């Protein structure tokens, strides 16, 4: 089988299995520039792969191959292992981008991965080993997420799935997104387990790789002070703060996020 046909077959298979959010996957278009690393996007809790659609459109138009991973949101260690399997399947360099809880995932998945050149934290957690999402979110005042959660859904073994109350989703999660879009996001939100939010980080790849950070001043999930603290602690190459942006800054300001990813793809 010719390599081009094999690439198409594997991409189509991955799309059918839900590994990719669009039929562009881990393989660059044969006509794409060869100096473009693959951008691997990891969504966070209460979001889905399509939360990256605006960013993906920009990156694809600029010639970057993109994989938008369907993050399981079950556990930091398990989700990182899943992401690492995707990373290891990609030929050539990659840039890992994590939103919110996805920052925990990329920090672990990138550890020891030879083909990861940089990390981008989008309204995200850059934890030290031993820290948890719940701990970091509560370290600074300002998060109202706890008040917006719906009743937990028990899934067994003392573990619960957590959702944001759909009636509160827009104001809590996506206040600067058009109301109709926010309603669709609320209906399609992916739950995260309480176990994942309380599982301590084991790796901190940002200590060894260049990191870039972007977040909004109106984030109600993660206090902006917490994200400023984590970016400074990580000695970020660049930090972009978007005035009045919500927690889903990649949805409301895709160009700003894409610009930072492109910068991270070609660090000096």
Please describe the structure with a list of short key phrases separated by commas or semicolons.
single chain; 268 residues; alpha/beta; Rossmann fold; six-stranded parallel sheet; three-stranded antiparallel sheet; 9 strands; globular
Please provide a written account of the structure:
The protein has twelve helices and nine strands. α2 (53-61) crosses α12. By secondary structure, the protein is an alpha/beta fold. β8, α10 and β9 (238-242) form a beta-alpha-beta unit. The chain has helices at 3-16, 53-61, 76-88, 102-109, 133-138, 145-148, 166-173, 179-188, 194-197, 224-233, 249-252, 254-265, and strands at 38-42, 66-69, 94-100, 116-124, 153-156, 159-162, 192-193, 211-216, 238-242. Residues 39-259 form the AB hydrolase-1 domain.
